[in-house]
Amino acid sequence: MDSVLIANGLNISFEIVTLALVAMGLAVTLGLLGVLNLAHGEFVMIGAYCAFFVQEQGLSYLWAFPLVVIVCIVIGWPVERSIIRALYSRPFDTILATWGLSLLLREIVEFFFGPGFNSVDQPVSGTVNIFGADYPLYQLLVMLIAVLLIGSLVAWYVKSSTGRRIQALVDNPNLAKSVGIPTIALARNTFIFGLCLAGIAGVLLAPIVAVHPGMGIDHVLKSFFVLVVGGLGNVVGLVVGSGVIGGAESIVAAILDRTAGYTFVLIVALLFLWKKPGGLVSR
Amino acid sequence: MTVPARFAFEGITGGYGAMMVVRGLSAEVGEGRCLCVLGRNGVGKSTLMNVLSGHLGAAEGSIRLNGRNLAPLSPDARRRQGMSYAMQERPVFDHLSVFDNLMLMRGSAGIGLYRPYFDRFPILENRLDQKAGTLSGGERKILSFTRALAEEGDITLLDEPSEGVQSENISHMENIITEAKSRGCSFVVVEQHLHLAEAIADHYLIIDQGKCVLQCAAADTDRQDLLAHLEV
Q1: What is the CA angle B227-B231-B232, rounded to 5?
Q2: What is the reported pLDDT for A283?
Q3: DSSP 8-state code for residue A231
Q4: Do A172 and B55 touch (CB under 8 A)?
Q5: Is A159 on the interface with B (CB under 8 A)?
Q6: Which residues, in sequence order, are CB contacts of B7 under 8 Å at separation 6+?
Q7: Number of Cβ atoms within 10 Å of the Cβ of A90
Q8: Are the beta carbons of A167 and B85 separated by less than 8 Å?
Q9: Gap between the Cα atoms of B220 and B185, Å rounded
Q10: Does residue A1 carry a pLDDT above 80?
């Protein structure tokens, strides 16, 4: 087989898988709780800064994972309590409030780390030869971890008792309360869990992207496009949406340039919002 | 001084926004007793149930279970205090299987605890793997009834449990409620089906336009009285 073709295929797969990874947290907060968290990208950014921070301290990259979970809980708890909880049934207000939150988080990170671009060293180096194409080992690992993470999240959602209670909460909130599900705590934990997923995605992506305070915008937009195209129904929608958005962008970008790729994705998302607002895989 | 009733509500006034749907409703339910709330459509029966279950805040009035004030508690906290509730509209989790509807809050317990219910309602056992949303309206009511009764709450609120249910299964509901009463479970039941109401009620609360028009012991009341007050 043609090694250029394989390299391109791997690059497109990587785009799609990482997109699904980043969109997963938004799928949780938007798909399950109906909260369109415009600060989602900022939590990806915070995750990336966690990776940057631990390397600055001379610690192993792996410390970034527990760190980002702690940071997301410390930020997410008061944010849910003070902002999100009052707005669960007010989508437009939620967008404004989380947009404000995203500005605040960006400013805070900029205050501590400065506005510049930073880079994070890849925790594993080297390349693997796949059918004649040399491909970075770290990128391969990220793909593997992302697939495992998405798979185990779905299994947990379907199989675990907490997952079923979240399904019950989404299905019929009033009945969920009356059968004794502590819905306020469950919604809070689900929201924080969605933030942690965004943060973990940020840690994983940090070594392959430029880490800077404004990096979140790109991620929240593309994640939103994924959910617009795929629908909020289930994980199939997440994968299909990532496939369409990630695939279309990388193919158009490869043929023309990145701006054209971005424009094309924007047009696709707008067409979906206009013609098929439920997405490809509706609930 | 008398022993406080198992469940009591007093001066319940509530509604939506500035519009009060129910005004000044009071009743007591003793251990193993059943209060039936009757009235025509749209007089506030479901509003009363929404206030008692905690889905709608009471503008005024108190709700007590075993002497404890439930009024400030959320519906899930009321469940933990021993209240069970089978609602009239959307009574089950449509997207969950019948099995998950029954076992959602049961932890590691086995489905066997529903044996007495499955004997009466084999339809549930036969459809455990089916999504509850695929059941008929009456079957959903049976599922909701079974889930609520099996919780063995100190007080169980049933809002129109027999709506759309076949008469054979209404008889089963009647027997199950009677048995639960003999074990000390108390009930507040909103019911249109007068035959079922007469079979289970110890007390009646008849409301019209949100106010109490008759409150009486079942023993002192015959169907003529009830009908007379229901057709005012």
Answers
A1: 120
A2: 58
A3: -
A4: no
A5: no
A6: B28, B29, B64, B65, B66, B154, B155, B186, B188
A7: 12
A8: no
A9: 23
A10: no
Task: Give the integer Cα–Cα distance in Å for A49 and A93.
Answer: 28
Say whether residue B105 is in contact with chain A using an 8 A CB cutoff: yes
Residue ranges of domains in chain B, CATH in brackets: 31-50+74-230 (3.40.50.300)
List the single residue in A170, A172, A177 with the smallest CB-CB distance to B76. Answer: A177
pLDDT (tens digit per residue) in B162-218: 999 999 999 999 999 999 999 999 999 999 888 999 999 999 999 998 899 889 898
For residue B96, give the chain A residue with the closest CA: A168
Residue, of B108 and B14, whose pLDDT is higher = B14
Q: How far apart are the first and last CA of chain B?
A: 37
B107 near A CB under 8 A: yes
Strands (E), B71-185: 83-86, 155-159
Assess whether pLDDT exceeds 60 at residue A198: yes
> Two tokens at A125?
């180096």
List, for residues A241-271, the tens digit of each pLDDT value.
999 999 888 889 888 888 888 899 899 989 9
Q: What is the mean pLDDT of residues A58-79?
A: 96
Q: What's the gap in Å between the CA of B111 and the closest CA on chain A?
A: 15
pLDDT at position A23 is: 94
